[in-house]
């Protein structure tokens, strides 16, 4: 956890410059700079909110930038390179534990399950979690939600990730798929659409969903510094209202319709594959249907972090989560 925070601190100056250069959007309405942790079909409701004009209806010009990493996303937020971050809720706890005077507050939930899948190099018609024992497992970054959920699920199935298998965690997030494709690992934990692409190409086969196995958690949420929320409460409420419209739209429309709306965000992915991934996430309840991050989800998050040995301190739900904004939006 300390290493995570040091990376954030060391990157602040660079990200002030980066986000002032690459952020882009339309020029209408009040500007809101959003930094997303990665570009993913997992975040479909966010792209729907942009493409269906829900933010514009609220008078907001959302400028979306992809940071490619949790530490980089939080760096952008802390350095005022972004107004709002879309990233795992665990990052707000890490920052809080360092004694932040301007804590990062989770105000709207986007996804409510883990978004990764277990991919096997070999096709296993009758997969058992015991099949992982004595194999090489290509995991995610230490301290990040994907890795913590992965270890949590493995332990639920009686597998000690640090003694029952060869766990690899030193590969950068963006290079994990390439490492597996080049022959590293017997199993890998992957997001979509990479998991389905590998299955289509015969590189690997999806055998389990970490989202289904781990239950409801605030996996990715929109968050901002307390000072920004205090100074821009109406803007944050408008943002949350637009998001809620998109969440409801996604929930009430087919995977094909969702895929058609967000296709422009994934130029290198076939429409049919986007549709398949959206359907998979919809069917397992990954997309939150409202922006409220409730207490049970927050406690489940901390249980997963504690099991992974990455929880620096217990934090009450009300300390880093603001549900008033989302509740007002839904109530109205």
Structure described in brief:
This protein has 332 residues and is an alpha/beta fold. The chain has 16 helices and 10 strands.
Which helices and strands appear, and what pairs or packs with what?
Layout: H1 2-22, E1 30-36, H2 44-51, H3 54-57, E2 60-66, H4 70-78, E3 84-87, H5 90-97, E4 104-111, E5 116-120, E6 136-138, H6 145-156, E7 166-168, H7 176-181, E8 187-191, H8 194-201, E9 205-209, H9 210-214, E10 220-225, H10 226-231, H11 233-251, H12 255-262, H13 271-283, H14 295-307, H15 317-320, H16 324-331
Parallel strand pairs: 1-2, 1-3, 6-7, 6-8
Antiparallel strand pairs: 3-10, 4-10, 5-8, 5-9
Describe the structure.
Helix 6 links the parallel strand 6 and strand 7. It is built from 16 helices and ten strands. 50% of the residues are buried. A five-stranded mixed sheet has the order 2-1-3-10-4, sandwiched between helices. A five-stranded mixed sheet has the order 7-6-8-5-9, sandwiched between helices. It has two domains: 2-113 and 217-331, D-Maltodextrin-Binding Protein, domain 2; 116-214, D-Maltodextrin-Binding Protein, domain 2 (3-Layer(aba) Sandwich), CATH 3.40.190. It is 46% helix and 16% strand. By secondary structure, it is α/β, with parallel strands linked by helices. Residues 1-26 have low confidence and may be disordered. Helix 2 crosses helix 11 and helix 11 crosses helix 16 (324-331). The chain has helices at 2-22, 44-51, 54-57, 70-78, 90-97, 145-156, 176-181, 194-201, 210-214, 226-231, 233-251, 255-262, 271-283, 295-307, 317-320, 324-331; strands at residues 30-36, 60-66, 84-87, 104-111, 116-120, 136-138, 166-168, 187-191, 205-209, 220-225. It holds the Pfam family NMT1_2. It is found in: Periplasm. Belongs to the bacterial solute-binding protein SsuA/TauA family. Keywords: Signal. This is ABC transporter substrate-binding protein.
């Amino acid at each position: 956890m300390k290493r995570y925070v040091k990376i954030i601190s060391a990157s602040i100056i660079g990200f002030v410059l980066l986000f002032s250069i690459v952020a882009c959007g339309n020029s209408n309405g009040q500007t809101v700079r959003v930094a997303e942790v990665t570009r993913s079909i997992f975040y479909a409701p966010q792209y729907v909110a942009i493409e269906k004009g829900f933010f514009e209806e609220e008078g907001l010009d959302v400028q979306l930038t992809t940071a490619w990493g949790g530490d980089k996303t939080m760096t952008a937020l802390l350095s005022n390179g972004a107004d709002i971050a879309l990233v795992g809720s665990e990052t707000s706890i890490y920052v809080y534990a360092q004694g932040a005077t301007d804590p990062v507050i989770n105000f709207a939930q986007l996804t409510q399950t883990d978004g990764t899948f277990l991919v096997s190099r070999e096709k296993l018609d009758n997969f058992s979690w015991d099949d992982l024992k004595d194999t090489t497992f290509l995991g995610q970054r230490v301290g990040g939600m994907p890795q913590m959920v992965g270890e949590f699920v493995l332990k639920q199935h009686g597998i000690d990730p640090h003694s029952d298998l060869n766990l690899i965690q030193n590969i950068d997030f963006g290079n994990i798929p390439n490492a597996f494709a080049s022959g590293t690992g017997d199993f890998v934990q992957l997001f979509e659409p990479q998991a389905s692409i590998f299955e289509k190409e015969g590189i690997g086969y999806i055998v389990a969903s970490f989202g289904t196995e781990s239950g409801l958690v605030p996996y990715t949420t929109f968050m901002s510094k307390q000072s920004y929320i205090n100074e821009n409460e109406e803007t944050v409420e408008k943002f949350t209202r637009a998001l809620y419209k998109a969440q409801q739209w996604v929930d009430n429309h087919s995977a094909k319709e969702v895929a058609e709306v967000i296709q422009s965000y994934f130029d290198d992915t076939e429409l049919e594959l986007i549709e398949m991934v959206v359907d998979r996430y919809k069917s397992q309840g990954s997309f939150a249907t409202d922006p409220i991050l409730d207490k049970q989800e927050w406690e489940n998050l901390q249980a997963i972090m504690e099991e992974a040995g990455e929880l620096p301190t217990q934090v009450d739900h009300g300390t880093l989560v603001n549900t008033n904004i989302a509740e007002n939006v839904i109530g109205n």
